[in-house]
Structure formats: structure tokens, C-alpha cells
Amino acid sequence: MARRENVDPKKKLLEEKVIDLSRVTKVTKGGRHFRFSATVVVGNRKGLVGIGTSKANEVNDAIAKASKAANKNVIRVAIEDNRTIPHEATGKVGRAVVMIKPARRGTGVIAGGAARAVLELAGIKDIVSKSLGSNTKVNVAKATLGALKSVRTPAKIAALRGKKVEEL
Questions:
Q1: Thinking of the domain 15-75, which architecture would CATH place it in?
Q2: Pairing with 105, which of 17, 35, 53, 86 sits 20 to 30 Å away (CA)?
């Protein structure tokens, strides 16, 4: 299980990328009430990545709140050779299923939309990703983060089993 990292939101150590921005309407007897919903991914391209969603009356406020929420949900990702993941993984949120597989050096990030944003900001350079089921941006991003959370390094597995890496 990936451990949450404590990141000070005042320090701009993490890059942020807006992956979804939409207008939300609430219909009341007084008329329509418009708000904005934002989903933001933050990361340092060195193994830290997080996702946050928020709503506000103004676009800038929604993005700022989502960024603050993303900074609170940052996790550390297991990266092998500073470029890819150790093994295949699958993440599922709602109907969105994302499969991620390690790739050879020079392959690049083969992913689309929200999954690409999460993988790039995590610092993964060579990976193959496939999005199955729903293509809702928020759920695909969360499923990608879930898949990254489930990835473990050989050292971590050996520690869990109480063995050395050579014994695996």
C-alpha cells in the first residue's frame, strides 16, 4: 500500500495540471445556479502524485481548491530504473478500469487523456496503459492512481515476507 506524503501546499514543489473543468448547474425555484467543478493532478515527476476534485462559484477558486485537495492526497509511486514500473497493475474506480504495464526503454508514455496526465506527473517515462470501460476523466485518473498504488517493488515484497530480495 502506498504511503501518503505530507506536502506543504504553500510551497510550490509540485507541478499541477487541470484534467477536467466543467460547469455544474443546480436548478432551484429561483432559477439556475451555476458552479464550476475542477479536477487537478499534482506531481513532482520524481515519484509523487496526487488527485483532487472540488467545486466553487468561480473557475479560479475551483482550481485552487482542487489543487489544495490534491496536495493533501499525494502518494509515493514505486518507479524502477527511474523510468517505469516493476510489474503490471490494474486499477478500478466505478466502471473505469485502467491497466498499466512496464515498457522497454525509449517506449514513452503510451496512454490517453487523464491517465497520461497522472503517469507523466508521477515521473514515469516508459509505460503502456489501456483504459477499459467508462472513459469519465475523473474516474480514469483515480483508477490510474489506484493502479499505481498497488505497484510494489521487489524490496517491499521481500520485506513483507521477511526475506531478502535474492531469496524471491
A1: 2-Layer Sandwich (3.30)
A2: 17
